Structure of Aspartate carbamoyltransferase:
Amino acid sequence: MKHLLSIADLSTEEITSILDTAVSMHEVQHREVKKLPTLRGRTIINFFFEDSTRTRSSFEIAGKWLSADTINLTGKGTSVSKGESLRDTVMTVGAMGVDMIIVRHPASGAPQQIAEWVDCSVVNAGDGTHEHPSQALLDAYTMRHALGGLEGRHVAIVGDLTHSRVLRSNLLCLAKLGAQVTLVAPPTLMPSGIGAWAAADGFNLSYDLDAVLPTVDAVMMLRVQRERMSGGYFPTAKEYAVTYGLTPRRLGLLPEHAVICHPGPMNRGLEISADAADAARSLVLDQVSAGVAVRMSILYHLLAGEGNDQ
Ligand code: NCD
């Protein structure tokens, strides 16, 4: 494994191996001295062309806890803002001899393209509306831990599906781990062509959140991505919250054991109520905590795993 560009490139065994290694990486978080020597002497560049809080900081923390040297670059403050092309910018960084570029970019497919230009490992930290593989892996880690496994479990993914790269990576990852998935959204936020994909890959579609909630083991609420919306996808925020939000009333529809996930950042009062976000069964902060461990495991697999002595 050299790059992590898409969940589609990972076998079920590789996913399981990343999740299993993350379990031991997670212990580091509770130590006083949070440092393993595993990636000593390796250099990792975090290159984020889009805003991020948790993904960027957790990749940086993951690198630091594994003793790699980590450097953060953004579009602003680099020669990108002087008009340098993406190719020239990443080839410049690659020429410095770094071991890995972790990239977030508004264009779907940018990490794949970068992987063709540079010799080092490339990790996709979210590309446009395409994929966000490390997020799907940390979601799987969190749900697997809470539910005791994902095989045969029912996961509903709800909200702004059209603009969500988290959705696309999760669909692939959950299928490989044997979960049953139902997507719930208003018709305007269902991606075009999703019907054919659902038929081919065996997941379900619904417009009725109330009907789906009593049947789930986990419900994953996705953010309404206003920054990617050019028109009106729903009449008002209030109407969206009432029809597709995880409101206090809908919390009562969930089975007792069912858990709530959200990749963050949350729009409280829109797709998720404060009651749901802060409920005992909400795994939102567990996801953040798992994010560091899973990203440590990803870095380990790409830079120090078997056959990856670079
Ligand atoms: C997601 C992203 O950036 O794709 N957030 C994240 O990485 N935790 C989802 C989102 O922005 O809504």
